[in-house]
Write a structure and sequence with these properties.
By secondary structure, this protein is α/β, with parallel strands linked by helices. The chain has a single domain, classed as Rossmann fold. 39% of the residues lie in helices and 13% in strands. The protein has a six-stranded mixed β-sheet.
Length: 254
């Protein structure tokens, strides 16, 4: 049977963004709204985020040439694209790796009317949504004009099918967002709602952390991706860059 998975898959959360910084400030001040001017898709990396992306790029650069990512897929959001560009500039990709492919299915979760609101802001301005989220849980709660985790998972199922169709047996790097990292784990590892929410509750996915899978031909009888590391931040720490894990500007209410 032909292998349908990449031989190795890395999933990297983007570096710290200006939105992360603004969200952290809003939480610290107990503000209802997060003060940032750009559309979420246009929020750039912070200076710290650039340092983090350079650090993870150097970690990839130290891999043997035949072990570096050959294919890069990225969220269309600026902070993810910039992270991928820094990884490339640091020499972190295989020499013949094409330019990153932008895949809209890897975008951040959309929060609709709750966009740019902190948890306090949701409770103050949309108490009915706060109550509904409490009743349904974050996995199933879909804000008006927004997405639930299930909606994100639905589009990621399609993205994984594309990965299997076009990039089987290749070394693939995905650069995206915290919820994408978690929902991909849910899909790849065939988790339950309770299992993935327990991982989420244990701590945020750090900026520029690495989640890595390697293909195991003996797993599940037909071969599967096996988790090798999750939320790996040693490259960032060893480079002297700060470890950050603030929520994005549009998901501070999560």
């Amino acid at each position: 049977m032909q292998q349908r998975w990449p031989s190795r898959l890395w999933i990297v959360r983007h570096g710290q963004s200006a939105g992360n910084v603004a969200a952290d400030a809003a939480h610290s001040a107990n503000s209802a709204r997060i003060d940032i001017a750009e559309r979420d898709v246009d929020v750039p990396l912070s200076t710290q985020g650039e340092r983090q992306a350079d650090a993870v790029g150097r970690w990839f650069a130290e891999l043997p040439g035949d072990s570096k990512p050959e294919i890069v897929l990225t969220s269309p959001y600026l902070r993810a694209r910039q992270t991928a560009e820094h990884i490339r500039a640091a020499g972190g990709l295989a020499p013949d790796a094409p330019l990153a492919t932008i895949d809209e299915r890897l975008r951040e979760r959309e929060l609709g009317i709750l966009d740019r609101l902190t948890r306090a802001g949701v409770e103050e301005l949309h108490p009915e949504q706060a109550a509904m989220r409490q009743r349904l849980g974050k996995f199933y709660h879909r804000p008006p004009s927004g997405e639930s985790w299930c909606d994100v998972i639905l589009r990621l199922r399609s993205a994984l099918n594309t990965l299997a169709l076009h990039h089987a047996e290749r070394r693939v790097l995905i650069v995206a967002h915290q919820v994408v990292v978690l929902c991909l784990r849910y899909l790849i590892e065939d988790m339950t709602e309770a299992e993935i929410l327990a991982i989420d509750a244990a701590g945020d996915v750090a900026n520029c952390s690495i989640t890595e899978y390697v293909f195991d031909p003996h797993a599940a009888g037909i071969g599967a991706l096996a988790l090798e590391r999750y939320n790996f931040v040693a490259p960032v720490a060893e480079a002297g860059a700060s470890i950050t894990s603030e929520p994005d500007a549009n998901v501070a209410a999560r």
